[in-house]
Every structure is written in C-alpha cells, then in structure tokens.
Write a structure and sequence with these properties.
two-stranded antiparallel sheet, 5 strands, mainly alpha, three-stranded antiparallel sheet
Length: 683
C-alpha cells in the first residue's frame, strides 16, 4: 500500500492535487478574475458573478467591522478554531476597557449564521471565491479585500446571516447588556419588606416541581422514583404542619393588635385544632423520624399540640396554655406557648420554610424570585440538601460569576438540563401563582435570566413548566411539557457555538486517487449505521484514541496546529504544496502501522474492486487503458498504478480520521469557549 505522501507526490506530477481542489482561478465580481499560481496573481476580464442582495451594504459593513477588529488585534479568521484559540490566549488584552465593547460585539458576530464570517463558510457553498481572511492585514490587497466583501455579501447564505446577526445582536448582546444595566440598578436599590405568605397550594407546587427535578437529575428508575416520592411526601406533610403552625401563630399576633375578641381567638384555635385532628402530631413525628438520617429531627415537645387537638383539659392545662381557655380573650402568648412555637422554629424543616417566606417578603428578592428559588432548591444530587440552605449566603453568591461549564456524557448533560428545568419551573410558578399577589406590576425576566446566565447551569435544551388554570375556584394544576428550542441568552450561546464549530465536510482533504463521496462521511462516522463490521471497529477505535487522554492525543494536537491554527490551514482556499505534504505526512503517521486500518484498506477482495466491475484477473488490461488516457507532464516518468490505488477505502479513512480528529478538538475546546463567552458577556 502506498503512503499518502507518495500519492501526493504522484498527484503533483500530474497536477491532480490542485485540480481536485477546484479551478485554480479565484473568481471576483466587477468583471475581473484573479488567476493564481506559485508566482503571484494577475487580473483578467471575466463575467460579473455577484448578485444583488437586499441588505448587501449592511452585510459588507458587518464583515468590514469584524475583519478590521481581527486585523487590528492579530486574530486569524480563516476558521473558528484558529479564531477562538487566539482569543483565549489574548483574552486579558482584548478585555481592557477601550477594547471591551468591540470585543463583545465581535464574539457575538462570530456566532451568527453558523460561522458565516469565517473562511469555512465558503466551503459550505462550494464557491471558489477569494476570501477576506486571506487578505486582511495586506495593504497591497485592499482593493481585492473590498471586492471579497462584496462577493461574500452576495453568497446564498448572506441573507440568512444578516437576519441571524440581528437576532444575535438583540437576544444575546442586547439581553445581556439590559441585564447588566438592570443588575447594577438592583444592587443599589433600597429594600422594602412586604407581607408575603406562602399558601398550602404554593408548598404543593414546590414539591411537585422538586420531585420532578430530583427524578430527572438522578436518572431514577421506577422503584427508586417511588422511594423518593414517599420520602418527599413525608417531608411535605411535615412542611405543611410547620407552615400551618407558624401561620396560626401569626394570625394570633395579628388578632392581638386588631380583633382580639374571645370569639375571634376561639375561631382561630378551633381551626388549628381541626387541622391537628386530621394530621396528628404523632403522625407528623413519625414522618420526620423516617427522614432522621437526612439531618431532619422530629418535634421534641408535643404537649402543647396534643392539648390544642383535644381542646379540653383540666384547670392546670388551661393555666399552662391560656389559649385553650374559651372564656378568656387573647392577650398574648403564655410562657409555655412561646416555648412551643420557638422550639418548632428551630427545626431545620421549619427554618427552610421561614427562610423562603422571609426572602420572598423582600421587594428586592421578589424581582429575582425565580432565580432565588432555583438557587435555594438546587441540590447537587442530594434531594434533602435544601433543608440545610441559608438564605444569608445568597447575596454574596449572586455577585459571583461562575464560568465553570460541565460537559461530558449524557448523565452530566441530563444533570445540567435538570437545572434548566428547575429554573424554568420556578419562573412559571412565580409568574402564574405568586406574582399576582405582589405589587410588582413592572416585573420582567430580564434580571433573573441575567443572573441564571451567570451561574454554571447551562444546557443544550430548554424544558418549560407551566401552570394551567382550571375550575371556578381558580385553582392551578401543575403540568409540564418538554420543548426543544433556543432558550435564554446563555443557552443560545452554547447552541450557536456548537453550530459555529461545525465545518463542512468539504474542508477535509482526500489524497487517494479514487475519491470517496463526502456526503457519505456522516454515515460512515455514525456507529449506529449498519456499516461493514471492520469499519465500525475502526471508527470506534479512532474515537477512543483521539479523545482527551487517548493514545492519539498528541496526533490530535499536531492536526490542530497544522490543519487549523496554521495560516495556510482549513478555511484558506488554496494551500501551498509544502502544507499538503505536511498533511500527507500526518495522515501517514496516523494510518500506517494501525492494524485495524490496514485490515480495512488492504486489497483482499477475492472477486471485484469495491464499487466497480474490475476483478484482479483483468487488472493489467484496465491499468493499460488508464495509462493510455493520462496526459503526462514533460519530464516525468509514467506512474505505476496498483489495483489498490483505485479502491475508495483509503479516501474514506482519510476523511474519517480528519472528521473524528476535528470533532474531538471541538469537544475539548467547547467548554473553554463557552466559559470565555460567560466571562466576557456576563462578567
């Protein structure tokens, strides 16, 4: 089997290498072409190839602004990997005050139109136009540069790029800028306390959301989900008890300053007594005991609540608990009654409810309520961890940008999606249930969305939770549905980065004499497809070797430096011959010596060459016919083609190796790039 480098040298002798890359003429508008050879360029007349675009002038302005920024700061723009690697290396310099606004804009512009501003956008259109990325920074080529902008503005994808750019500018840059401005005002805003009570329906809603969140987060099977449901049901009963007890105490204190008649006091006591008979204190303690290992303790002194349930007792009981004396008005809690209420307020479960209630009574917290509730209930895989939260630490954490991005297997992605679900659920809960009970008529999601974008939870898909109103009593029934769409600004950034980094298969090179169909590359690299068994093994093996920590990790870095970071790399229309030879050496290094690849490429078909009607027995005749029809360049000897040279397997492997290597590079950089966007836009 010939090496890739040998094939390249043979192709160069036959001028087949550059011919395979397309015409050696770069097309420009305004009745000119630029004929390129090893010694330079020459302008010649040609037809006008540019077609008018409704927003051509605006697109040219955007492209000019982007490439001018890249030129001023020495940033390559021939492919997204080269651009982002340079930006990551020079982030501190680009983030200085005088550069920061333009830097923000350039980062958002890079996301529009699936990376339209980069050289690889031309590969997708398969048009042999000269590109701005090849001309920026060259004063002698300013005329060509203006022509290149005009050509790019007339490409088929230019119109969609323009509309996508407007969307990015408004819903990413605009949303984040509005969020920053609103956040700055919110930090200095004067706080006011309001009377905000959680209702029983509110608590039911919390637990409905929380159960679904935990189940999604931890990939629970049916049995595990049922066990969690029972534990959360026990916790909910305890929460409702503490909530009712605290509400009873609050009603008594309000009655003491208003209607403190005997009838009013007795009505409140009777209502609480009815609740305790339906939910005995012994039952509540049993529920709490079942959760004791989670740091949740039972009610210690139950005498007062037993007496409240009975509503009858001797004179000693009435002296100890004057609330139960039906003949006396309410003049404040007695000593032992205060002890009873103080004790339950020290319980960790009760503290949780009181902290939520106290926080939501703040006018400042109400403006970011969905994010506060998301922060409070986010449990990092520990369903009962929220009872140990302290709202006192919340203010400090809202000021800290967390740019950590977690990518990994499906379980980690599901973990991140569960956080998005939790946030969206509380947005819906607040807007549909709690917000109508406050005076926040001008509430918007700008500020909570901005704060959520600053936290670490970010995922590819967005899940909505909504509350549906039904019945004459105006009750709300929780139900949810999953929607796969672009979410808030932070989620849009992730989705768009994945699209921007995805380059066309036309960018990958083939040096074999017989070419593989590039539109088949996705199918060849998909392990789910029913391929030849040997090819599936090769693909699986290459994915393992090129991933971080794999045996081919160094080869992956070498490919990135050569194919992507090099000024002659992917995204440049015509690379020099020296670059192609280096690429051939790299492919040889990966392909030669890999037994699985050799087994797949080796000419061992007993009957026919794959995809042809040529058998080994009549190869000599076919070879003679091929040689007679090849026009040799003067001074070169005739090429000796072997049967295996016309088999497409080598070309398939060349494409597969490059595709898998590129995908591995993107996966390893994606987290760093998203973190960069978070630091620059949200920081």
């Amino acid at each position: 089997m010939k090496s890739v480098l040998e094939i390249v040298n043979e192709m160069v002798r036959e001028d087949a290498l550059l011919h395979d890359r397309g015409s050696r003429t770069l097309l420009l508008p305004c009745s000119y072409t630029l004929s390129v050879d090893e010694y330079g360029g020459q302008l010649c007349p040609s037809e006008d190839l540019g077609e008018a675009n409704a927003h051509e002038a605006e697109i040219i302005d955007i492209l000019t602004r982007f490439h001018r920024f890249c030129s001023q700061h020495g940033l390559p723009s021939h492919n997204p990997i080269a651009f982002y690697k340079a930006v990551l290396n020079r982030e501190a310099e680009l983030c200085v005050k005088e550069n920061h606004p333009e830097f923000e804009w350039a980062l958002v512009c890079a996301l529009a139109g699936n990376g339209f501003v980069f050289g690889t956008s031309f590969d997708r259109d398969q048009r042999q136009f000269i590109r701005p990325c090849e001309l920026i920074g060259e004063p002698a080529n300013q005329h060509f540069l203006s022509l290149a902008y005009h050509v790019q503005a007339t490409l088929p994808g230019a119109q969609s790029f323009y509309h996508d750019y407007l969307h990015c500018e408004k819903y990413i840059l605009g949303q984040v800028s509005d969020g920053k401005s609103t956040f700055t005002k919110w930090v200095d805003e004067k706080d006011e306390l309001t009377d905000f009570w959680l209702t029983e329906e509110d608590i039911e809603g919390f637990f409905a959301v929380y159960y679904d969140y935990c189940k999604r987060q931890q990939h629970l099977d049916t049995q595990q989900a049922e066990a969690l449901r029972k534990k959360l049901l026990s916790l909910k009963k305890a929460v409702l008890f503490f909530h009712t007890a605290c509400q009873f105490e609050g009603n008594l204190k309000r009655a003491a300053t208003g209607d403190n008649s005997i009838e009013s006091k007795n009505a409140l006591v009777a209502q609480f007594s009815k609740y305790l008979n339906e939910n005995p204190i012994e039952t509540i303690n049993n529920e709490l005991e079942a959760l004791k290992e989670k740091g949740i303790v039972a009610v210690q002194n139950v005498d007062f609540f037993r007496a409240c349930a009975r509503l009858t007792g001797n004179a000693e009981t009435r002296r100890k608990y004057p609330l139960l004396d039906k003949a006396k008005p309410f003049n404040g809690l007695g000593k032992y009654e205060e002890y009873a209420f103080a004790e339950i307020k020290r319980n960790s479960v009760c503290k949780t409810i009181l902290q939520i209630k106290e926080a939501l009574s703040s006018s400042r917290i109400q403006k970011i309520a969905p994010y506060f509730l998301f922060w409070f209930f986010k449990n990092k895989g520990k369903p009962f961890g929220f009872v140990k939260h302290s709202a006192d630490t919340f203010q400090k954490e809202t000021f800290a940008l967390d740019d950590a991005i977690h990518f990994g297997d499906d379980s980690k992605k599901q973990y991140e999606r569960s956080h998005c679900f939790l946030y969206e659920a509380f947005c819906a809960w607040w807007e549909n249930r709690a917000l109508p009970r406050t005076s926040l008529k001008s509430y918007t999601r700008t500020l909570p969305d901005y704060l959520f974008g600053r936290c670490a939870s970010i995922a590819s898909h967005k899940e909505y939770w909504f509350w549906r109103k039904y019945g004459k009593d105006g009750a709300y029934s929780p139900c949810w549905q999953e929607v796969y769409s672009v979410g808030n600004a932070s989620q849009q950034v992730l989705l768009r980065i994945e699209d921007t980094l995805r380059i066309s298969d036309d960018a990958f090179l083939q040096y074999a004499w017989t070419k593989a169909e590039k539109n088949e590359l996705s199918r060849l690299c998909d392990l789910q497809e029913k391929q030849y068994r040997s090819l599936r093994k090769v693909v699986r093996s290459l994915r393992e070797k090129f991933q971080s920590g794999g045996s081919r990790e160094r080869d992956r870095e070498a490919y990135m430096n050569l194919a992507l970071l090099s000024p002659s790399g992917i995204g440049v229309l015509l690379q020099p011959l020296s670059w192609h030879r280096e690429m051939a050496k790299w492919l040889d290094q990966v392909i030669l010596g890999d037994s699985q690849i050799e087994d797949y490429i080796r000419f061992d078909d007993p009957v026919f060459l794959k995809g042809t009607d040529v058998s080994p027995s009549n190869w000599n005749e076919v070879n003679r016919t091929i040689m007679e029809n090849i026009e040799l360049v003067d001074g070169f000897e005739q090429i000796e083609l072997q049967a295996e040279d016309l088999r497409p397997e080598l070309a398939e492997i060349e494409l597969i190796v490059q595709r898998i290597c590129y995908e591995s590079i993107c996966e390893s950089l994606k987290g760093s790039i998203v973190s960069l966007y978070k630091r620059v836009l949200w920081g």
